[in-house]
Amino acid sequence: MSDKTETAAPDRERADLKLRTRWLHTAATLTEALPYMRRYADRSFVVKYGGHAMGDEAAAQSFARDIVLLKQVGINPIVVHGGGPQIGKMLERLAIKSSFVDGLRVTDQAAVEVVEMVLAGSINKQIVGAINAAGGNAIGLSGKDGPLIRARKLARTKRDPDSNIEKVLDLGFVGEPESVDPRILYLFERSDFIPVIAPIGIGEDGHTYNINADTAAGAIAAAMRASRLLLLTDVAGVLDGDKKLIDRMTATQARAMIADGTIYGGMIPKIETCLDAVDKGVEAAVILDGRTPHALLLETFTEHGAGTMIERETPAA
Ligand SMILES: Nc1ncnc2c1ncn2[C@@H]1O[C@H](COP(=O)(O)OP(=O)(O)O)[C@@H](O)[C@H]1O
Ligand SMILES: CC(=O)N[C@@H](CCC(=O)OP(=O)(O)O)C(=O)O
C-alpha cells in the first residue's frame, strides 16, 4: 500500500512535466508562426484541392480545419476544387464514355451535365459541409455564379507524328478561362465567409464549360493577385530524376525538366499553371501533398515549408 503511494507521486510529476512540455511546445509553435501570420494578414491564398488529394474522411477533415485556421488568423483562403476521379466514377455508373487528351477530359453534352452535377453539386457541398463542421462559414459557388469565370472553348492542336501536320482536336465542352471577374471574391475578403469554387465556366454562347481545376485556380489567383497559389495533389511535390523532392524551382528549371521528360502527364498542366500565375503577379505557387496531415499549415507557418515552390525568375543583374 505504502509502496503504491510512493510510486504514484513521481508518476504524477512525470505526467505533469510531460503536459507542461507539450504546452511549451505549443506556445513555441505559435510564436514561430507569428511572423508568418503578420506577413500574410489580409492576403489571399488560392488553394486548389484536387480530387485525388480528397482521399479519406480524416484527410478531408484535416484540410477543412486548416482552411478554417487560415481564415481565423486573417488570411483570405479561396478554395477551388477538382473531382476528376469522382466524375469518372459517376460517368461509369451512367455508362457515359469519356477519354482524356493531355490530361483533359473530352467532354460532350451528356458528360458536361454530369461534370456540373458532380463538381458544383455533390463535391462542392461535401467541402462546404466539412469546412462548416470544422467551425468555418463556407459558401459554395461555381464559376457560373457572378459570373466569376467567363470561359471560351479550349483550342487544342496536336502534330500528327506520321504526316507532321498540325491537327485541331475537338475536346467538346472543355473550356479555358477567358476572363475572371473577382468582384464577388472581394466581398468574401471583408467577411467571415470562405468561398469554395467548382471549376465550371459560362461561355458567350451560353454553354457550360468544363475547366481543369488547376487552370481555374491559377486564373483566380492571378485575378486576385494572390499571395500564394497552393495546389494540393497526391505526390510530395515535384520530384527530380532520382525521385527526390525539389523544394524550390525557377521557370527555367521547370521548362528544362518538362523538355527532358522528368516532368510529365498531369504534372505538366500543374507546372504551366504555376508559371503562368507567377508571371501574372502571384507571389509564389506551391505544389504540395494534400494527403499529408496539415500540409497547408506546414507550408504557410513554418520556415521549412512543404512541397515544391515555383518562383518568379529574378532578372539577371
Ligand atoms: N516530376 C514529377 N514529380 C512528381 N509527380 C510527377 C512528375 N511528373 C509527373 N508526375 C505525375 O503527376 C501526378 C500529379 O498530377 P495529377 O494526377 O493530374 O494530379 P491531380 O489529380 O491532383 O490534379 C503525380 O501523381 C505523378 O504521377
Ligand atoms: C477539362 C477537365 O479535364 N476537367 C476536369 C475537372 C475536374 C478536375 O480538374 O479535377 P482534378 O483536379 O481532381 O483532376 C475533369 O473533368 O476531370
Automatic annotation (TrEMBL):
Feature type site, description Transition state stabilizer: K48, K270
MF (Gene Ontology): acetylglutamate kinase activity; ATP binding
Top-rank taxon, per record: Bacteria
Keywords, ordered alphabetically: Amino-acid biosynthesis, Arginine biosynthesis, ATP-binding, Cytoplasm, Kinase, Nucleotide-binding, Transferase
CDD domains on file: AAK_NAGK-C
Main location: cytoplasm
Reactions the enzyme catalyzes: N-acetyl-L-glutamate + ATP = N-acetyl-L-glutamyl 5-phosphate + ADP
Alphabetical GO biological process terms: L-arginine biosynthetic process via ornithine
Pathway it works in: Amino-acid biosynthesis; L-arginine biosynthesis; N(2)-acetyl-L-ornithine from L-glutamate: step 2/4
Enzyme Commission no: 2.7.2.8
Compartments where located: Cytoplasm
Binding residues annotated for substrate, in chain numbering: G83, G84, R105, N210
Enzyme class: transferase
Pfam families cross-referenced by the UniProt entry: AA_kinase
GO cellular component, one term: cytoplasm
Aspartate/glutamate/uridylate kinase domain segment(s): 45-288
Function per UniProt: Catalyzes the ATP-dependent phosphorylation of N-acetyl-L-glutamate.
PANTHER family xrefs: N-ACETYLGLUTAMATE SYNTHASE, N-ACETYLGLUTAMATE SYNTHASE, MITOCHONDRIAL
Family per similarity comment: Belongs to the acetylglutamate kinase family. ArgB subfamily.
Protein name, entry field: Acetylglutamate kinase
